[in-house]
Specification:
two-stranded antiparallel ribbon; 25 helices; globular; mainly alpha; 7 strands; 63% helix
Length: 624
């Protein structure tokens, strides 16, 4: 339950009390605001609202009900969640008495009506009329972050006098509150397909869901189930199944857009929702890949496309790691003087170039539309070949641009950025030991880490790819060299211009080796088992990304040690390929995939349902 305290009686005819109740607040009118605040249980959200407030209901909703912020305010209204209640009590005491109020009701200082900056005793409602604004200013002066939502055309004001009030009411009536709310439910920056082909109607579906009490998590789950049914249809291997799969995949994407729009429409943000939103997109897409591969093997042509399916997953995951690592490396960079960035900014000022650039990177909307149409009209092999070509071009385009920016950028990267890149590298105990010993003998260079990472990857993959020695003890030796060089790559802080390339290079090495060994193996079922193994490891890497994005840091290092780090897993798969051939290698991959999935999922679920998990929802519009 939430409580709204009006700091005086509202004018006759005001709908303020009714508006606050429609937002779920228990409304209390109080002249002794300090006492009224002390009477509200400390576990509840509380709002202070000026009785003369005039504005849109959605302006109040944005300011008073968003669960992501401990304190928020617009003109005439302030809210604090339980975490900020103690600060609110102190600020209120300072404003009303000139000294901090005590936290408990009986001991709290009474409101003596003293005049403070922000008060207008001449106003129609007495000394406390603009108390919320003064308290919000006091909170900010004391270092409390008070969120102030962007209202745009929405109105939130405390007019003085009948003439000013009538004018403000006219301004409120001139703007359709619901239309603004519906428009703002859509991301301000998104892909072309999503913006023009999905959002024009999915926003109305979001409103339909809100009016029926559905939550974003329920819609997210429905999207997952729809995608899994689509994967099942694709797995039938029939033309009818492929057509149904394509249609269901598009509908799953509509629901995927709807859940975020519903969250923004009704301000229903949660840590569980953040986790589901962050992980289900990948689960849906990769499950559909598996369904297509199963359908190809069961269809009339009995086509084996598991290697293509695994290749698509490897490419997509590595591309995402490039995005994540680059963004984290530059999250808090102190400068950006790159000519490439300046050119990008100029291109963004030309309308048509914005949409072209967003489309050629093949974001999730364009990608899923491509997959759905090709699934319905062609074969799984065509789907994967086109997808691999398109994603490879997008990956080259984005990576090349970021390399150019990094080479010409004069920026000093922080310890936080270096730590984030080290966490994304996912180094285990072998690489750590190599970094402390061998790495200590190697002089640090600006481009040293990416050089050693590329050299390690070359030592690992050139042999299996060029000479076909995968599954031999020589390949195991190559994996040992990879682990040593990988340790050298992370021996120094990752603050160089291109150090953000280290995590994606390691991902390409690990995933690429699993794909290569499984493809070269004669073991039946090795490629599907390898697909499961890469999916389990990729989940761990995505989980790491979203924890870092939320500001809570990477998973505990004990988890990274338990699953071996990337170099430990590379060594384990290389040894398994050398020890077992045929069915034994498939069993080894399956056991390793199951063990990793269980270990990673248990820790991930523990974290994301805990109170420390961040309610992070993607509003960036970056390609997914």
């Amino acid at each position: 339950m939430s409580t709204a305290i009006l700091t005086g009686p509202p004018p006759v005819g005001s709908s303020l009390e009714e508006d606050l109740r429609s937002l779920g607040f228990d409304v209390r009118v109080a002249t002794d605001v300090t006492g009224a605040l002390a009477a509200v249980p400390a576990t509840e959200r509380v709002a202070l609202v000026d009785p003369g407030f005039v504005g849109h209901v959605h302006a109040l909703r944005l300011a008073l009900t968003d669960p992501r912020f401990p304190a928020a305010a617009v003109e005439g209204a302030l809210t604090a969640q339980p975490d900020a209640r103690a600060s609110l009590t102190r600020a209120l005491g300072t404003v009303t008495t000139g000294r901090p109020a005590r936290a408990t009701g009986p001991d709290a200082a009474p409101d003596n009506g003293s005049e403070e900056p922000g008060h207008h005793p001449s106003g129609p409602h007495g000394p406390a009329a603009e108390l919320p604004g003064a308290v919000a200013a006091r909170l900010e002066a004391d270092g409390v972050a008070v969120h102030r939502p962007e209202l745009g055309v929405l109105v939130a004001a405390v007019p003085h006098g009948d003439e000013a009030r009538a004018k403000t009411l006219a301004e409120v009536g001139a703007v359709d509150d619901e239309a603004v709310r519906l428009r703002n439910a859509v991301k301000s920056r998104d892909g072309f397909f999503t913006t023009f082909c999905i959002s024009p109607y999915s926003r109305y579906l979001a409103r339909w869901c809100a009016r029926r009490g559905l939550t974003p998590n329920q819609v997210t789950t429905a999207s997952l189930l729809t995608a899994l049914i689509a994967a099942g249809c694709a797995a039938t291997g029939t033309r009818g199944g492929f057509v149904a799969a394509g249609a269901l995949l598009l509908f799953s994407f509509v629901l995927d857009c709807t859940d975020g729009q519903l969250a923004r429409y009704s301000l229903q943000y949660s840590t569980l929702g953040a986790w589901l939103d962050a992980t289900f997109d990948r689960a849906k897409e990769y499950a559909f890949y598996a369904g297509l591969a199963l359908g190809a093997s069961r269809g009339g042509g009995h086509d084996d496309v598991w290697a293509l399916a695994l290749g698509a997953m490897v490419l997509m995951t590595c591309r995402h790691v490039v995005d994540f690592a680059f963004n984290e490396a530059n999250h808090d960079a102190t400068a950006n003087t790159s000519p490439t960035a300046a050119l990008s900014g100029r291109l963004d000022s030309v309308g048509w170039t914005v949409w072209v650039r967003r489309m050629i990177v093949l974001p999730i909307g364009e990608r899923w539309a491509l997959i759905a149409v090709l699934t319905a009209l062609t074969t799984p092999r065509v789907v994967f070949v086109v997808l691999l070509i398109g994603c490879a071009f997008a990956a080259c385009y984005t990576t090349a641009g970021r390399v150019l920016r990094s080479l010409t950028r004069k920026a000093r990267r922080t310890d936080r950025a270096a730590q984030a890149l080290a966490d994304l590298a996912d180094s285990g105990p072998i690489a750590e030991a190599a970094g402390r010993t061998l790495g200590a003998t190697v002089p640090g260079r600006a481009y040293g880490p990416p050089f050693w990472a590329v050299l390690a990857t070359a030592c690992l993959l050139i042999g299996p790819l060029l000479t076909g020695n995968g599954g031999s003890w020589r390949a195991v030796l190559q994996a040992v060299v990879y682990a040593l060089f990988a340790g050298v790559a992370v021996a120094q802080p990752l603050k160089g211009p291109l150090d953000w390339l280290v995590p994606p290079v390691f991902r390409a090495a690990e995933y690429g080796l699993v794909l290569t060994l499984a493809a070269q193996s004669d073991a039946p079922g090795a490629l599907p088992a390898a697909f499961g193994l890469v999916a389990a490891v990729a989940y761990h890497h995505y989980d790491t990304v979203y924890r870092i994005r939320g500001g809570t840091g990477a998973p505990p290092h004990r988890l990274v040690r338990a699953i071996g780090g990337h170099e430990g897993r590379v060594l384990a798969v290389s040894i398994a390929a050398a020890l077992w051939h045929g069915q034994g290698f498939t069993i080894a991959l399956t056991v390793l995939a199951a063990a990793l999935a269980i270990t990673v999922l248990i820790e991930s679920i523990r974290f994301w349902v805990s109170s420390g998990a961040p309610a992070v929802h993607d509003e960036s519009g970056e390609p997914a």
